[in-house]
Amino acid sequence: MDLIRHSCSACLSAFKKINPSSKCSGIFAMLRFGVILWILLITARGTSCEVTIRRNTVVSWADELGRRLYNLSRTYSGSDVVHEQYSNEQNIEIVPVDGVELVRDMAHQMETMLQDKAKAVERIVQAAEEGFLNHDYDNATEFTYYNAILINSNATTSPDLEKDIRKDLDVTPDSHFENIPINTSIAAIQVPTNVYNQGTEVLNSIEATELLDTTYRENYQNDPTLTWQFFGSRTGYFRLYPGYKWIPPQENLDLYDCRVRGWYVEGATSPKDVVILVDMSGSMTGLYVEIAKYAIKKILDTFGDNDFVNVISFNETTKFIQPCFNDTMVQATSDNKNLIKDALTRTVPKLEPYGMADLSRAVRYAFNLLNDFNSTNRGSECNQAIMIISDMLTETAEDVFKELNPNQTTRVFTYQTGREVDGPTNLIKVACDNRGYYTRLATISDVEEHVTSYLHVLSRPMVNKRLRKTVWSSVYWDALGLGLTCSVSQPVFNVKNETMDKGILEGVAGCDVPIKELKKFTPPFKLGVNGYSFAVTNNGYILFHPELRYLHTDGSVKPNYNSVDLSEVELSDTDDVDIQPRSSQLVTPMELRNSLVDRDTGGVTMEIKYMFDEMKRVSIRRSKYYFTFLFETPYSLGISLPEAYASKHLKTPATFDMESSGNYSSADVCEIQQAARLLFGDGTLGTTIIANWLYCKINYSSSERYEGEEHVARFLEDAAKRGGKLSPTCDTVMVNHLIFDANVTRFMPDYWKLVYGEALPSTVDTTMFTTLSTNESDSDAISSIQDILAQIDDYCSPGGQGYTTATPHNKTEDSEDGEVMTTEDSGTHPTEAPNMRYTTSLFGTTEDVPYVEFPYLDPIRDGVVLSFLGTYGGLTRIYHNPNMYYPFSDFSNKEEQSTIEEDYFRRPVDEINEGFIYSVPFDSELEYSFDPLVTASTAIRATKDGSSFVTAAAGYQFLESALQDLFFNITRQHDEEDCGYDCTPSCFNDSVDCFLIDNHGYIVVSKDQSQVGSHFASHSQNIRLFDKLINDDIFKEVKVVDYQGMCGRDIIVSAAPTLHNTLSNILSMFTWLANQFTVFLSHISVYDWLVSTLSPVDALAERVWYEPCDLEYSFYVANKSDNFVGGQLYGYFQTFCDDCIKSFGVQPVPYSNLLLVIQDRDCTCEPRDSVQLDPIEVEYNETAWCQKLRQFKTRRRPDTCFNYDKKEDSSECGRGFATQPSTILILTALVLTAWWRHH
């Protein structure tokens, strides 16, 4: 306002000088004065002239900040020292990677492991079949067993009717089983609530498989990498090893039925195309239609990715339940099955049961649908079936079946709903005439128990032919706690001669293979920085992939996590961000997917968008993809290697050299001693962490599990004991690279000690900075190898027989003792690089160690918490500031560090050519009450013969407030009182906002610390400026569609229990009763009583439920230039809410991913439009949505099919339930009814 004030004064002075005698002149002068004043006042609304942001000033600020920050980062991280050490290594070689050979080698190792698991299952199958062969059925058996749900539990009723199967079992947490308490001596038996746990048939089957426990134990002893081994019986029980206390999702209500799990269904049957016909004639009302709907849902649960299905309602006409699936069969994926289930809930209530059931019309329609679909060659081309669900049939459609199914190649299964005893004749005849099966579903509980009866009919041809198949499942979430898992299973036959033609399937045996075990054969070390592995099934669905997001934000498993297509996660680049001109050599995600499905071996190139860091950042890169198939499995394996830097590998000097025999590698025991000292030291100089990678595939006993440092310590100890011979199960290249890294970076702890200085008296309890891990077993392993080292000290000490003066890998022609070069400033960087000079001792040996003078450093002033270094070989070194305590560092709390998989390693390689990447936790104010931490890191590249390789990443963590102080103090170049309207005010001025934002738009420094970690455009006062940065090409918008999204839906539901939940709770009360009691309940109208006695609940609750959807994300990435990220922009722009003019300046900070932003704070208003930050749902119209669902993608059918055997005995084709209640059961029911009413 000074300009206005001065202008007004000048005008008034001029007005006073006007000659009063000249009225005309005076009038014109007054008018002129008024116009000038009006213009100045209008201008004053939009211009705060004291806020002038001058380009030269902002440029100098950014340059000064970049120079000082770069120097601090180089010094505290020690990046120059690390770079110098790697550059001085003479015996390294950068070699190209043969991607096809690499993926083949990984696939071969994976195949070996998977076949070992398949052989373990074969042994379980043989033992089970032998058990059934030798077992004599006993109608009066009183066999007892460890009931998994009753283990270590107390009786809740008296008398305790389950006392014989309620047993105590000693269980111990096991890290191999994610610390689940287990017992490796026996198996436990899980029985679902709908199966009587002391039924005669169940007890006989459990007794027949008793000897499986011995086979389980032997398998586990032979292969300690095994996890759950199991046998699922056709009677419903589940024999699981190791023994485990089963905890159902709901107290005393266990609905887990192994017979509807994918591994059981696929092991029991071959692929199938099934049309389900549900009667909607006039008699299908009330409970009948509810049972039918529930039965369809449970039948759908038994279908897998290799099956095809559709559901049609019929009376006098036919109608598809899901309109999107009209006139076709659809693959039984999770998505498709859920859509049909949803349609059952939404569509069926709208269908008024009416008229007669025209079975002939419906059956003809079903056959035509199956035949038309078969002509497309898209179906299973194996089993075909029609399922009919009705309360009764008035005809058998015999003529239609004779015409369209003369050889009974299509089986027909019939289900009768309700309690009526009349009317099953036609349903039975239809099933028996067409090699099918009739099932009576009198109540909801019958559905749970008998809906899987069709599976054992479909299995007859396989059982009769005694042709066994090995089935590998798609990925699924382990209900017991092992996370994502796949499984291998095989059917178990009844091999008694007297049952030969009956084709009796006793169950399915199998074992789980955790996905994390598969991924161990594709270690990050071999894939390189930002490389990754993935695998798909024969249907193109992901088995594992880093972009498979299987958990919802609330921790629940997404409903469609196991049917995510590869083309939905490998997202190709478009014109949104142009890396390089598109080339005809590039392929699409669908082409890549089809190559894997077709079991090709080869390589392609593709440009992709890759979301990371909690889906808040995006990277765009060109990558090479290599792929092959896994022998005797439906899986294909692929790897992705960034084209720019992951197509080469660093060949390091060898500590362990391959012997001439080629059978094993060996090293001098003194070199092993030296390597161990470099890796583990004495713990006084910082923390050392070794990545949990599979350096050696050593099968320790089940009681010994080693990871990370412990794992490395054990195999080095083993090598020392064997006279230097490394176990042949070790990956020599990985071991040598780890030791090489330990040697090259051995000076870093001493260097950081010099940087930080000694601990000040009584400042921080340094015991919190532990060496290695706090795990006791780690400490034991380290102590053990140190004992071994001590035993050979005399041998390797000066004067000893094995003494050598050289440290590993430093024997060169120019240096016998590995002298280290000093770091000198090259002249291309700021000139405050440290000078290194003196000698000290390290781990008991005398070597030249860098010495640095740091006259300008003050770690406390600079807010430095720790320094770190991660190497390509998997070694992490951490050094804590002894005078700074900060409990929330990732490096302090994270037990594992995977170096090249960590963001601090990955981002510098991708995002900056020279300098450091700076980042803060997202939404820092929500995470901690402490000062947020800034993480700075840079990539260390070794250069050899004109080729470079990323060998390490170095960095440090420091307080955000320290960075703010550094930044703001640099802007304090003028006395605030002397700063006129033509100078740029400092960041201490209330009239301006100052920010440092990163190359993705997230705030690193702000005056308001609560904004740190949030997006710049998430604050209304910044939206217009950020929008201008987008329009002026400083930031580029990148749109990505997430095909794994979950969208919330607002629904209003009654607080009353649902029918299913209510009946399930009733079932939980009757666990100790036989299944016949449930049938009895239907005869005394328990359903009607239940509905009438439940208290009405008028209150309706609003809830949000989530369903799969497609979400569009918008990311903003700063454009790249040669030495930094981002462009520069200065000036003003007009706002339209109050006509003010907003001034601003944006300048990249050299040698960083940061942009300095300063803007006028006084000119604020609400923006007209906000920048898209939150994902938005992709809306489809009905036609587009249905087309998306019906899209056919290339798939490969399973290799085996068993659908017919001419010797099959199909006489057993029906089962009804007409159990008559006894007086005792009636009395018991009445007592329980009275109890229920009063509780």
Automatic annotation (TrEMBL):
Pfam families registered for this protein in UniProt: VGCC_alpha2 (PF08473), VWA_3 (PF13768), VWA_N (PF08399)
Membrane topology: Single-pass type I membrane protein
Occurrences of domain VWFA (ranges): 273-458
Database matches in InterPro entries: Ca_channel_alpha-2/delta, VDCC_a2/dsu, VWA_N, VWF_A, vWFA_dom_sf
Subcellular location field: Membrane
SUPFAM superfamilies: vWA-like
Keywords per UniProt: Calcium, Calcium channel, Calcium transport, Disulfide bond, Glycoprotein, Ion channel, Ion transport, Membrane, Metal-binding, Signal, Transmembrane, Transmembrane helix, Transport, Voltage-gated channel
UniProt-annotated stretches for the region Disordered: 800-834
Keyword Glycoprotein applies: yes
GO cellular component, one term: voltage-gated calcium channel complex
UniProt GO molecular function: metal ion binding; voltage-gated calcium channel activity
PROSITE patterns named in the record: VWFA (PS50234)
Domain of life: Eukaryota
Family membership: Belongs to the calcium channel subunit alpha-2/delta family.
Official protein name in the record: VWFA domain-containing protein
Classification of source organism: Eukaryota, Metazoa, Echinodermata, Eleutherozoa, Echinozoa
